[in-house]
Design brief:
Blueprint lengths: L19 H13 L23 H4 L1 H16 L7 H17 L7
Length: 107
């Protein structure tokens, strides 16, 4: 059973895992480059420049790097390699311990 020492855990900034806004910007810029008169096309009231399809790979490189950093951080976190089944087993073990000492079971 893993130790319950949470003193050594330091969480990264939430922005480490926030990839939706940069992806939204890239998609918006990509849509700006497509000439269309559709009422669903995004208004061009932003200061974003259009993004040509050939430039998408370069534009998403920062998002890819952010995902790689997040994966690396998660891999270093304690018990991140445990399966769901292993976690369920530990929960059942802890419930049994609580039952033995007479504490009410936590759902």
């Amino acid at each position: 059973m893993p130790s319950a020492n949470n003193n050594s855990i330091t969480l990264p900034s939430p922005s480490t895992f926030d990839i939706i806004p940069p992806l939204h910007i890239i998609l918006s810029r990509l849509l700006l480059s497509e000439p269309t008169s559709s009422p669903t096309s995004p208004p061009n009231n932003s200061n974003q420049s259009p993004l040509a399809p050939k430039d998408v790979a370069a534009a998403v490189s920062e998002v890819r790097a952010r995902i790689a950093r997040a994966r690396s951080i998660i891999a270093q976190m304690q018990d991140s390699d445990r399966t769901i089944e292993e976690q369920k087993e530990e929960i059942e073990e802890l419930k049994a311990v609580l039952a033995k000492i007479g504490k009410p079971e936590v759902a």
